[in-house]
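FAQ
Q: What does a multi-component entry look like?
A: The components come first, one per line:
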Amino acid sequence: MSGVADPDPWNALRTLRTGQRVELSDGRGQRWAGTIVPRSEMTGERVLVLKLDSGYNVGIRVEPTFTFRRPSAEPTAPGPPPPVAEGPVGGHGDGPWVALLTTGGTIASRVDYETGGVRPVQNEREILEFFPELTSAGPVRIVPVFDRLSEDIGPEDWEALAQRVVDAFGDGAEGVVIAHGTDTLAYTAAALSFLLQDLPGPVVLVGAQRSPDRPSSDGPSNLAAGVEVARSARWGEVVVVMHSGLSDGRYAIHRGTGVRKMHSSRRDAFESRNGPPIGFVDVGGVHVTEPVRPASPGPPRIDGPLDRAGGLLWFYPGLPPARAQEFAAGLRGIVLAGTGLGHVGSAHLDWIRRAIGAGTVVAMTTQCLAGNVDPFVYATGRELERAGVLYLGDLLPEVAYAKLLWALGHAADPKGVEALLLSDVAGEFHWRHTAGGDA
Amino acid sequence: MSGVADPDPWNALRTLRTGQRVELSDGRGQRWAGTIVPRSEMTGERVLVLKLDSGYNVGIRVEPTFTFRRPSAEPTAPGPPPPVAEGPVGGHGDGPWVALLTTGGTIASRVDYETGGVRPVQNEREILEFFPELTSAGPVRIVPVFDRLSEDIGPEDWEALAQRVVDAFGDGAEGVVIAHGTDTLAYTAAALSFLLQDLPGPVVLVGAQRSPDRPSSDGPSNLAAGVEVARSARWGEVVVVMHSGLSDGRYAIHRGTGVRKMHSSRRDAFESRNGPPIGFVDVGGVHVTEPVRPASPGPPRIDGPLDRAGGLLWFYPGLPPARAQEFAAGLRGIVLAGTGLGHVGSAHLDWIRRAIGAGTVVAMTTQCLAGNVDPFVYATGRELERAGVLYLGDLLPEVAYAKLLWALGHAADPKGVEALLLSDVAGEFHWRHTAGGDA
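Then the predicted structure of the entire assembly, as tokens:
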């Protein structure tokens, strides 16, 4: 059927539903064929978003001179999403359900066809329009928590997220999935690992490295794998589920306290450091190969608060001691990302001694991002240890920072903070390295 | 023969030569058997250092009540080292020679048997006593440059080292090896890559992850592989040569601008990021698989100076913008290690805009330590780019920092500094990623 009766094709095109097929021509030789993709409030006026047969999405500004046709035999295309409850209470379907907390980020983002960039979704229902397969194994309840890119998510948000996780379990969720921008996903995973105790089911953070307008987007498959873990695993751990390789079909389950984003764009960017992932998800289901904490009978609780008076400083050659001292000023604790086994230039010993003398906790990690720190191998380490620097085994700098904020919130005096930092709260010390790790 | 005529065994033991075998008893059931290891000025009084048959070295404080014997059939043991010239001029042997610049660090360190820690050698001749095989293929001239652990090596030292490299080539060296502590070896390699131009031969940095008293020490084999590259390769690159796996026999050749220490203790800790190593060294010799810059007819020159008014700041969630601003205050340039494709929290935009307005160069890298930064994917990136933040492709944060000091030393105005930062000076941009790198 042809739709050229109206002089302006936009009047008809704007009424088409998601999933309907259309062929568009600009009348000067440019043609597009594809299916309609959901619009958002941010999609520009007169902009039609099509998923092309190539798999890519394009935004097309429809001029009055354009023509279009809709093939009479409508091909199979996704219809409107299945009915799914929104919000933490109420819901659709019977039986066990999984809570999906959304925070923004690529996995819950849309291309803004005005600017060409990617922006968070404005409406959580769009997620299920993109991912209709999510509910195939059982109900998923969407809980919008906030809506921003992950570089803007910080310690207050970690506490808010922890509260929503506890609420979801309180409402009866079997497991909780958190869709989170990948930039700071590992920081959030670490913080939640310390904040959440007595979990009756898994808390699974998932993200997307590729935006949803690309055929290579990893969002849908990561989300599906995360939901599968949340639905089927019966342990009480905070984990990250992301692609374990470049192709779909295998997803790594990383412990929240030992994972890091190690590539800016690859789909398999997330790596467990200092040990293997907890397990994997593939077509055969969820496979766990490492020890996990069993699900608690509950109720889950927040072991807060965090105290933001902690910092993280990476040492580098040429860093003036005065600048480092200034950075640490006013903090109750600071994590240093030192070199190698945990060193900083010996010129830094003075300010570190003074800071410790004034009651600041100074903790050491390694900027190598793998392996233990050890103050007893080199002279510099021994002097730092003697000055009172706390060596934190194989904690990643970012994990140590999240743990520091948690420890500062739980103890008033430096000795108490140090004791908490050295205790194993959430499986964060990996004394058993992978084979050859210390060879 | 027995040595108990003198009432104090120390008087005889102190005269024994390196490599001689001795059996020692404390008269109360403790016995040691091994060969004498070189003493240094730091070896404690009355302390005998033995390499045990297990391969480990021990320091034994010899009490007057001890007894010892020397087996009459002296087993094969390393004798005194072959004669080798010291210093940058003069020398031993004919034909092509390699300069070995020592800076301290594990590869040139000794166990201090008083404290149990590892300290730099006091005498560069000790290196050749430990590594007699170094000169098997030709002369090596030792050039002591300085003697400290690598966490204390900074920008002034990079310039001093560059001068000694130029001097060594000027004296006729075919290639230059720099023995360097591994903690900051990659920083030095990056800085030398920018400082040294028109190289008539390779400059090879080598280090040791394990101290020389351990049978698993990688120092000798890394040093031998590094000398082989310096002797046989005819290109003008600054490279790092270290174990490519846990066993001896294969050494990776990393370009100085793309390598990082990625484990605090493993022997294969050094990794080329954003691409494969340049090549490998194995029993078959030196194999190069990536493009290298051919040796220049020379003369080599230092393209200095460095300007230390640059800094490096790692972003993390919860970093207060005021603290970041204070850290950057007074600097002519700062490298940010942002998240993902190169982001920081949007609350940091204000101080970044003000800093750029005041003439500070603000450059972006990724704390993922692999992959490109890209300001055009997400809204935050676009805003940072619009504010004037310079996106540095796939430069590692540490490499970007070294390059920043170099660029600040070469241009007075921000635009000039930025142009230098974006230019390819030493093969530091790896636009061609490994297969699948962007999949």
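Q: Is there any commentary attached?
A: Sometimes. For this entry: Confidence is low (pLDDT under 50) at residues 73-92, 432-439 of chain B.
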